[in-house]
Amino acid sequence: MIRSIEELRALYPPAKPRALQKQLDHLDKHCRRFIALSPFVVLASGDGAQHDASPRGGAPGFVKVVDDTTLLIPDSPGNNRLDTLSNIILSGRVGLLFLIPGVDESLRINGAAEVSVDEALLAQVEGERREPRVVIRVTVEEAYLHCAKALMRSRLWADDSRRERSELPSMGKMIQDQAGGSGEPESQEAMLARYRDEL
Protein backbone atom coordinates (compact mmCIF):
# COMPACT_ATOMS: atom_id res chain seq x y z
CA MET A 1 0.00 0.00 0.00
CA ILE A 2 1.22 3.49 -0.84
CA ARG A 3 1.14 5.65 2.29
CA SER A 4 2.50 8.99 1.17
CA ILE A 5 2.33 11.44 -1.70
CA GLU A 6 6.12 11.10 -2.01
CA GLU A 7 5.83 7.34 -2.57
CA LEU A 8 3.12 7.92 -5.16
CA ARG A 9 5.03 10.65 -6.98
CA ALA A 10 8.09 8.38 -7.19
CA LEU A 11 6.12 6.09 -9.52
CA TYR A 12 5.22 8.79 -12.06
CA PRO A 13 7.10 11.42 -14.06
CA PRO A 14 6.30 15.06 -13.27
CA ALA A 15 3.16 16.52 -14.80
CA LYS A 16 3.83 18.26 -18.09
CA PRO A 17 3.74 22.07 -17.89
CA ARG A 18 0.75 22.16 -20.25
CA ALA A 19 -1.28 19.96 -17.90
CA LEU A 20 -0.68 22.44 -15.08
CA GLN A 21 -0.98 25.65 -17.11
CA LYS A 22 -4.38 24.76 -18.58
CA GLN A 23 -6.05 24.98 -15.16
CA LEU A 24 -8.06 28.19 -14.84
CA ASP A 25 -9.75 29.84 -11.87
CA HIS A 26 -12.68 30.98 -14.01
CA LEU A 27 -14.73 29.99 -17.06
CA ASP A 28 -13.28 31.22 -20.33
CA LYS A 29 -15.11 31.19 -23.67
CA HIS A 30 -14.16 27.54 -24.31
CA CYS A 31 -15.47 26.35 -20.92
CA ARG A 32 -18.68 28.32 -21.47
CA ARG A 33 -19.18 26.78 -24.91
CA PHE A 34 -18.49 23.28 -23.57
CA ILE A 35 -21.13 23.70 -20.84
CA ALA A 36 -23.63 25.12 -23.34
CA LEU A 37 -23.29 21.97 -25.48
CA SER A 38 -23.29 19.48 -22.61
CA PRO A 39 -26.46 17.55 -21.74
CA PHE A 40 -24.75 15.54 -18.98
CA VAL A 41 -22.62 16.19 -15.91
CA VAL A 42 -21.36 13.93 -13.13
CA LEU A 43 -21.56 15.77 -9.82
CA ALA A 44 -19.15 14.49 -7.16
CA SER A 45 -19.54 15.44 -3.51
CA GLY A 46 -18.59 14.27 -0.06
CA ASP A 47 -19.00 15.11 3.60
CA GLY A 48 -15.75 13.63 4.88
CA ALA A 49 -17.28 10.23 5.59
CA GLN A 50 -19.68 9.65 2.70
CA HIS A 51 -18.80 10.30 -0.93
CA ASP A 52 -21.08 10.33 -3.93
CA ALA A 53 -20.96 10.73 -7.70
CA SER A 54 -24.36 11.54 -9.16
CA PRO A 55 -25.34 11.77 -12.85
CA ARG A 56 -27.32 14.87 -13.86
CA GLY A 57 -28.86 15.42 -17.27
CA GLY A 58 -31.04 17.74 -19.28
CA ALA A 59 -31.17 19.55 -22.58
CA PRO A 60 -27.75 20.86 -23.69
CA GLY A 61 -26.96 23.88 -21.55
CA PHE A 62 -29.27 22.87 -18.71
CA VAL A 63 -26.43 23.93 -16.39
CA LYS A 64 -26.52 27.72 -16.59
CA VAL A 65 -23.41 29.90 -16.71
CA VAL A 66 -24.19 33.08 -14.78
CA ASP A 67 -20.76 34.70 -15.06
CA ASP A 68 -17.09 33.72 -15.23
CA THR A 69 -17.16 32.02 -11.83
CA THR A 70 -20.78 31.00 -11.23
CA LEU A 71 -22.84 28.02 -12.40
CA LEU A 72 -26.42 27.05 -11.57
CA ILE A 73 -27.48 23.40 -11.64
CA PRO A 74 -31.23 22.74 -11.37
CA ASP A 75 -32.09 19.79 -9.15
CA SER A 76 -34.39 17.68 -11.31
CA PRO A 77 -36.62 14.96 -9.80
CA GLY A 78 -34.68 11.87 -8.77
CA ASN A 79 -34.79 9.11 -6.17
CA ASN A 80 -35.13 11.53 -3.21
CA ARG A 81 -32.18 10.03 -1.32
CA LEU A 82 -30.67 13.54 -1.35
CA ASP A 83 -27.11 12.20 -0.95
CA THR A 84 -25.54 14.90 -3.11
CA LEU A 85 -27.56 17.77 -1.67
CA SER A 86 -26.82 16.62 1.88
CA ASN A 87 -23.11 16.40 1.11
CA ILE A 88 -23.12 19.92 -0.31
CA ILE A 89 -24.86 21.29 2.77
CA LEU A 90 -22.29 19.59 5.01
CA SER A 91 -19.10 20.26 3.02
CA GLY A 92 -19.86 23.10 0.62
CA ARG A 93 -17.72 21.47 -2.10
CA VAL A 94 -18.33 19.77 -5.47
CA GLY A 95 -16.45 18.37 -8.44
CA LEU A 96 -18.09 18.38 -11.87
CA LEU A 97 -17.34 16.39 -15.02
CA PHE A 98 -19.13 17.63 -18.15
CA LEU A 99 -19.52 15.35 -21.18
CA ILE A 100 -20.75 16.02 -24.72
CA PRO A 101 -21.90 12.98 -26.74
CA GLY A 102 -19.45 12.30 -29.54
CA VAL A 103 -16.67 14.45 -28.01
CA ASP A 104 -13.80 12.62 -26.32
CA GLU A 105 -12.57 15.58 -24.29
CA SER A 106 -14.34 16.49 -21.05
CA LEU A 107 -14.48 19.53 -18.79
CA ARG A 108 -13.64 19.30 -15.10
CA ILE A 109 -14.69 21.95 -12.59
CA ASN A 110 -14.06 22.06 -8.84
CA GLY A 111 -15.41 24.63 -6.47
CA ALA A 112 -17.56 25.77 -3.60
CA ALA A 113 -21.27 24.98 -3.69
CA GLU A 114 -24.50 25.76 -1.90
CA VAL A 115 -28.07 24.52 -2.11
CA SER A 116 -30.48 27.42 -2.58
CA VAL A 117 -34.20 28.15 -2.80
CA ASP A 118 -33.54 31.77 -3.80
CA GLU A 119 -36.33 32.75 -6.21
CA ALA A 120 -34.00 34.83 -8.38
CA LEU A 121 -31.66 31.86 -8.85
CA LEU A 122 -34.52 29.43 -9.49
CA ALA A 123 -35.89 31.83 -12.12
CA GLN A 124 -32.61 31.53 -14.03
CA VAL A 125 -33.09 27.77 -14.49
CA GLU A 126 -36.73 27.97 -15.59
CA GLY A 127 -37.58 26.00 -18.67
CA GLU A 128 -36.96 22.60 -17.18
CA ARG A 129 -39.80 20.15 -17.69
CA ARG A 130 -40.44 20.19 -13.95
CA GLU A 131 -39.71 23.18 -11.76
CA PRO A 132 -36.75 22.37 -9.51
CA ARG A 133 -37.29 22.72 -5.78
CA VAL A 134 -33.70 23.83 -5.27
CA VAL A 135 -30.78 24.99 -7.35
CA ILE A 136 -27.12 24.19 -6.75
CA ARG A 137 -24.97 27.33 -7.01
CA VAL A 138 -21.34 26.54 -7.81
CA THR A 139 -18.50 29.04 -7.44
CA VAL A 140 -15.77 27.93 -9.82
CA GLU A 141 -12.28 27.64 -8.32
CA GLU A 142 -10.66 25.28 -10.82
CA ALA A 143 -11.66 24.64 -14.43
CA TYR A 144 -9.76 22.64 -16.96
CA LEU A 145 -10.36 20.74 -20.15
CA HIS A 146 -9.46 17.09 -19.71
CA CYS A 147 -7.67 15.21 -22.48
CA ALA A 148 -9.41 12.60 -24.62
CA LYS A 149 -7.41 9.55 -23.49
CA ALA A 150 -9.97 7.98 -21.11
CA LEU A 151 -12.86 8.24 -23.56
CA MET A 152 -10.65 7.10 -26.43
CA ARG A 153 -9.62 4.02 -24.44
CA SER A 154 -13.22 3.25 -23.52
CA ARG A 155 -14.51 3.97 -27.05
CA LEU A 156 -17.56 5.31 -25.23
CA TRP A 157 -19.17 6.92 -28.25
CA ALA A 158 -18.29 4.23 -30.83
CA ASP A 159 -21.31 2.48 -32.35
CA ASP A 160 -19.66 -0.94 -31.98
CA SER A 161 -19.13 -0.27 -28.24
CA ARG A 162 -22.86 -0.04 -27.61
CA ARG A 163 -24.38 -2.93 -25.67
CA GLU A 164 -27.84 -4.36 -26.00
CA ARG A 165 -29.92 -3.59 -22.89
CA SER A 166 -30.95 -7.26 -22.88
CA GLU A 167 -27.43 -8.23 -21.76
CA LEU A 168 -28.51 -7.19 -18.25
CA PRO A 169 -31.63 -8.17 -16.33
CA SER A 170 -34.28 -5.48 -16.07
CA MET A 171 -33.63 -2.78 -13.49
CA GLY A 172 -36.69 -4.06 -11.63
CA LYS A 173 -35.21 -7.55 -11.45
CA MET A 174 -31.79 -6.32 -10.29
CA ILE A 175 -33.33 -4.15 -7.57
CA GLN A 176 -35.59 -6.99 -6.45
CA ASP A 177 -32.56 -9.30 -6.16
CA GLN A 178 -30.61 -6.69 -4.21
CA ALA A 179 -33.35 -5.44 -1.92
CA GLY A 180 -35.38 -8.60 -1.60
CA GLY A 181 -39.01 -8.96 -2.41
CA SER A 182 -41.34 -11.32 -4.15
CA GLY A 183 -43.71 -11.29 -7.05
CA GLU A 184 -43.12 -10.23 -10.60
CA PRO A 185 -40.55 -7.43 -10.87
CA GLU A 186 -41.41 -4.33 -12.85
CA SER A 187 -40.49 -4.82 -16.49
CA GLN A 188 -37.91 -2.62 -18.17
CA GLU A 189 -40.58 -1.26 -20.51
CA ALA A 190 -42.93 -0.37 -17.63
CA MET A 191 -40.09 1.29 -15.71
CA LEU A 192 -39.03 3.38 -18.71
CA ALA A 193 -42.64 4.47 -19.30
CA ARG A 194 -42.89 5.49 -15.65
CA TYR A 195 -39.61 7.39 -15.87
CA ARG A 196 -40.82 9.28 -18.95
CA ASP A 197 -43.85 10.48 -16.98
CA GLU A 198 -41.59 11.58 -14.11
CA LEU A 199 -38.93 13.42 -16.13
SSE layout and pairing:
Layout: H1 5-9, H2 17-21, H3 29-37, E1 40-46, E2 51-57, E3 64-67, E4 70-74, H4 83-91, E5 93-99, E6 106-116, H5 119-124, E7 135-146, H6 149-154, H7 171-179, H8 188-198
Antiparallel strand pairs: 1-2, 1-5, 3-4, 4-7, 5-6, 6-7
What's this model, at a glance?
The chain is of the alpha+beta class and 199 residues long. It has helices at residues 5-9, 17-21, 29-37, 83-91, 119-124, 149-154, 171-179, 188-198; strands at residues 40-46, 51-57, 64-67, 70-74, 93-99, 106-116, 135-146.
Give structural notes.
The longest helix is centred in the C-terminal third of the chain and has 11 residues, at about 190-199. The mean pLDDT is about 90. This protein has helices spanning about 5-10, 15-20, 30-35, 85-90, 120-125, 150-155, 170-180, 190-199, and strands at about 40-45, 50-55, 65, 70-75, 95-100, 105-115, 135-145. Helix content is about 30%, strand content about 25%. It folds into two domains: about 15-155, Electron Transport, Fmn-binding Protein, Chain A (Pnp Oxidase, Chain A); about 165-199, no CATH class. A hairpin with a 4-residue loop joins strand 1 and strand 2. A seven-stranded antiparallel beta sheet has the order 2-1-5-6-7-4-3. It is an alpha+beta fold and about 200 residues long. It is built from eight helices and seven strands, in the order αααββββαββαβααα. Pfam families: PNPOx_N. It comes from Franzmannia pantelleriensis. InterPro entries: Pyridox_Oxase_FMN-dep (IPR024029), Pyridox_Oxase_N (IPR011576), Split_barrel_FMN-bd (IPR012349). This is Pyridoxamine 5'-phosphate oxidase N-terminal domain-containing protein.
